[in-house]
Description:
CATH topology of the largest domain: TIM Barrel
Shape: globular
Number of strands: 15
Bound molecules: iron/sulfur cluster
Number of domains: 2
Largest sheet: 9 strands, mixed
CATH superfamily of the largest domain: Aldolase class I
Distance between the termini: 33 Å
Strand content: 15-25%
Number of helices: 16
Radius of gyration: 21 Å
Amino acid sequence: MVFLTNPPPAGIYIHIPFCARKCLYCDFYSITNLSRRNTFLDALFLEITATKSLLSFDSLYIGGGTPSILPADQIGRIIDRISGQFNLDGSAEITLEVNPGTVTLESLKAYRKSGVTRLNIGVQSFQDSRLGWLGRMHSADAAKDAILWARAAGFDQIGMDLIYGLPGQSRKAWLADLHQAISFDPEHLSCYMLTCEPETPLDRMRQRQEFKAMTDEDVCGLFETTVTELSRHGYPLYEISNFARKDNSPDANRSRHNQKYWTDASYLGFGPAAHSYLSPVRYRNHRDISAYISDLNSRTFPIAEKETLSREQQLMETVFLGLRTLEGISIRRFEEKSDRPFNIVFQDLLTDPELKELITLTPEHCSLTLQGMMVLDAIAGMFVDRI
Ligand code: SF4
């Protein structure tokens, strides 16, 4: 007799490919020609309606781009279409990414009414000079207003994105941003290191030597400051860039949706450049709104790339993504996939005295210490080499 176990709930991601203006560091796909919003939505609804799935879903993440460029009635239509098409749990986490430059108290109230349960606010910094340098469209005061309005609109799940590692940013300046964020008592904080992604305006500025990037050592120092300071204020790290307010249980305020990306759960992505993963198949839509719309208008799925991950690739992902998280690699998951004992495959790393301070091993998990997370890429590379 074969017992079938239910797969864990999956997630849905919607990519809204519009921004009022491009930030200098950003490599997410978006365009600033807002006149294509309605044609895009028609295509998005075609894509959703043509997709069938028997999975159960417990998270919907509307990201981009700047989804808060769309009014609440359009966001509400997207949520309704997803709920009508898929088995979306009645208590699903429904997140909307918000740019502070695009919202008012009234629009946030309308988003709440349309079914959004969680906001992720792109604050990035509480200092106007740094927001200007990043090319953000909003001021620090606009970010503060958006956070206060979000609470007033009834949101009890609020996350904020912050960026650190800007040229010349001192520990004191970064601590000021962190303390300002904590003062609003958000449920979640994401703190990202600034990176110069290829072909962004920021990367071209770096090549022209218009600024001096922070040294790796200084960035590591700010990472350490972030983890210790947020932990001291009740926001333990649960992934290398993510921190959730502890409350009654450590995982109460974690992003349900984002955790799917690190734990091998399935997700469906809709919209240009959106990724989907149905183990072991991964695929990505066109990173081009014209190609996306044109494919859907001719009743073709707008898929640009599709690959079936080999067992080796799946193991690499289990290791690489697991090491980013507080819990670490699930040894059971690794052994189920590889048919080999974890302790044997990585024996030399697990017994290397030089790595002792960087790696923690329990019967269930293998994770990195804070020191280990500072050299995540190097350690992950060592694990991957042994697969
Ligand atoms: S608002 Fe967000 S998606 Fe749009 S350009 Fe800025 S960082 Fe990128």
